[in-house]
Specification:
With about 180 residues, this protein is mainly beta. It has two domains: about 90 residues, Elongation Factor Tu (Ef-tu), domain 3 (Beta Barrel); about 80 residues, Roll (SH3 type barrels), CATH 2.30.30.240. It is about 15% helix and about 40% strand. It has a six-stranded antiparallel barrel with strand order 1-2-5-4-3-6. Strands 10-9-8-7-12-11 form a six-stranded mixed beta sheet. A hairpin with a 4-residue loop joins strand 4 and strand 5. The longest helix has 7 residues. The chain is elongated, with a radius of gyration of 20 Å. InterPro entries: PRC_barrel-like_sf, PRC_RimM, RimM, RimM_N, RimM_N_sf, Transl_B-barrel_sf. This is Ribosome maturation factor RimM. GO terms for molecular function: ribosome binding.
Length: about 180
Amino acid sequence: MDKSNNIYVAKLGKAVGLKGDLRLFIDSDFPEQFKKGATFLTNRNLELKVLEYNSSRELIKFENYEDVETAKKLTNQELYSTIEQTKENCKLGKNEFFWFDLISCEVFENDLRLGKVKELHRYPLNDYFEIETDIELVTKGYPKIFLIPHIFDKYILNVDIDKKIINVTNSFEILENS
């Protein structure tokens, strides 16, 4: 598995009970990917295969780690999935996109290029695009970076993943006031 291509999806907590169950702290909008038979890579380069996942108790168990002693060795490890696995296992709804597809998209308001998506941030009320402002706007004195709330219709008009373009509205105003 090419590590640069991987997406952080969860962290393993303490072993619970005697049969190898571990607490699972999911950092993903797709808990359904933790199904039996799914494989994940850890930050220590171990490949783990899910034996069972109990979503109500937030417990996970992996093949070959079926007792408390072996399971303890996995505590605090991070789980990663590949982009391919993610696309296969996680189904998107309308106006839903994978973060990795949104990064580096060009952002336009009408025909003005505002910049490109550098990062996404999750805040309690909304997710935000961190925009690296277009160099032409920076030379006119605008900030190098600004945030656009990820709210459809109010700020985000449409997203074209294939063309890597996001059309926005009311966002130049945010840049002006940043």
